[in-house]
C-alpha cells in the first residue's frame, strides 16, 4: 500500500466505524444484533413473502465525483427502494457495503452515515448488517434492500399478456436531463432537473395501485425502452411503445420544444434512464398511470412516434 492509499490517521478502525456510524442506524431492531454478528435473522411474517433486491453505485459512473457524501447515501437508498416499489413491496431494512478510498476521511464518512439516517427515518428503514472496506479506486457502495409483500402478490416482470396496456407512473426524461444539468450542459434555472437526478423519489406511493391492477412491472433505471424490454423479454411478448404519449414534466417539455428534431429528442428522453418511475402492464388503466402503449404477440419493444416505428438502439444504459 502506498502512502497515498493509507487511510487518514484519525480514522477509527473498521469496528469503531461500525459502532459509531452504523449501529445507530439499526434503530434498535433485535434482528440486527447491534451489528455485532456476521449475519441478521429476519423473522417471517405470516402471510407475507420477503422480497430482496440489490444495487451498487460507483463514483463517476452512477453519481458525479464531486457529489456530497450524504446525497450519495440517500441516492443509494432510493434507487434500491425504487426496485421494491416496482414489486409492490413494503420496505423493511437493508444491508450495506462500502469500499472507501483514502480521500474519504472521518468527516466524509460521518456525512454519508447522516444521509443514511435521514432517509432511513423517512422511509422507516433499519440497517441490518453489511461490511466496510478500503479501496485504491473510486468510492464503491452497494446495498441489499428487503421488503414484504402479501404472499404470492409480488409483481414480476414476466406477467404481461397480449391485450394488456403499457403504462408508466410519471414523467420520463427528467433523470437524463438532470444529469446533463448537473454537468452544466443544459440550463436548469430552478434546479428541478438536477434535483430529480441527484435525489430521485421512489414511487412507493403506487404500491397499492400496482398490486390491484398490474400484471408485470419494472422500475425505470436504465431507460424506459430498455426497462420495458426487460418486461417484454421476461413475458415473451411485444410491447408497442408510443413515444409521443410519454408524460413529461414542464422542464422536459420546454427542453423538447427547443429541439430541432422532436422524434430524436423523444428517443433520447425514453432511453436516458435514472427516472425511477415504474413501467407496468395491466388489463385496464391504473389510476395515476399514463397509458403509453399496448402488449401484443411477438418479442421485444416496438417504439413508435406519430405512427412510425423508430430506432432506439440498445434503448438505455448497459454496463460493459
UniProtKB/TrEMBL annotation:
Binding site for Mg(2+) 1: 55, 131
Task of the protein: Catalyzes the ATP-dependent phosphorylation of thiamine-monophosphate (TMP) to form thiamine-pyrophosphate (TPP), the active form of vitamin B1.
Residue numbers binding Mg(2+) 2: 55, 83
HAMAP family: TMP_kinase (MF_02128)
InterPro entries (UniProt xref): PurM-like_C_dom, PurM-like_C_sf, PurM-like_N, PurM-like_N_sf, ThiL-like
Binding sites annotated in the UniProt record for substrate: 62, 274, 317
Residue ranges constituting the PurM-like N-terminal domain according to the UniProt record: 37-149
Protein name: Thiamine-monophosphate kinase
Amino acid at each position: 500500500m502506498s502512502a497515498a492509499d493509507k487511510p487518514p490517521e484519525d480514522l477509527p478502525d473498521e469496528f469503531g466505524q461500525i459502532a459509531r456510524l452504523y449501529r445507530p442506524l439499526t434503530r434498535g431492531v433485535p434482528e440486527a444484533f447491534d451489528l455485532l454478528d456476521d449475519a441478521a435473522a429476519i423473522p417471517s411474517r405470516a402471510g407475507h413473502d420477503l422480497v430482496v433486491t440489490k444495487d451498487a453505485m460507483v463514483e463517476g459512473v452512477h453519481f458525479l465525483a464531486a457529489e456530497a457524501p450524504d446525497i450519495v447515501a440517500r441516492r443509494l437508498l432510493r434507487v434500491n427502494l425504487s426496485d421494491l416499489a416496482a414489486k409492490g413491496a413494503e420496505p423493511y431494512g437493508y444491508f450495506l457495503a462500502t469500499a472507501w478510498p483514502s480521500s474519504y476521511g472521518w468527516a466524509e464518512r460521518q456525512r454519508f452515515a447522516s444521509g443514511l439516517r435521514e432517509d432511513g427515518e423517512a422511509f422507516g428503514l433499519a440497517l441490518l448488517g453489511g461490511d466496510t472496506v478500503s479501496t485504491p479506486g473510486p468510492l464503491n457502495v452497494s446495498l441489499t434492500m428487503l421488503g414484504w409483500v402479501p404472499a404470492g402478490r409480488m409483481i414480476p416482470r414476466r406477467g404481461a399478456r397480449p391485450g394488456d396496456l403499457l403504462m408508466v407512473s410519471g414523467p420520463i426524461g427528467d433523470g437524463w436531463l438532470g444529469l446533463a444539468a448537473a454537468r452544466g450542459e443544459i440550463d436548469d434555472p430552478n434546479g428541478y432537473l438536477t434535483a430529480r437526478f441527484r435525489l430521485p423519489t421512489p414511487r412507493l406511493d403506487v404500491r397499492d395501485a400496482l398490486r390491484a391492477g398490474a400484471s408485470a412491472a419494472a422500475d425505470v433505471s436504465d431507460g424506459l425502452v430498455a426497462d420495458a424490454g426487460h418486461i417484454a423479454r421476461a413475458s415473451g411478448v411485444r410491447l408497442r411503445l408510443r413515444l409521443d404519449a410519454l408524460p413529461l414534466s414542464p422542464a422536459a417539455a420546454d427542453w423538447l420544444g427547443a429541439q430541432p428534431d422532436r422524434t430524436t429528442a423523444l428517443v433520447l428522453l425514453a432511453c436516458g434512464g435514472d427516472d425511477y418511475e415504474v413501467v407496468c402492464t395491466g388489463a385496464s388503466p391504473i389510476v395515476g398511470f399514463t397509458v403509453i402503449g399496448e402488449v401484443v404477440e411477438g418479442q421485444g419493444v416496438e417504439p413508435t412516434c406519430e405512427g412510425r416505428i423508430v430506432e432506439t438502439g440498445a434503448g438505455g444504459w448497459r454496463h460493459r
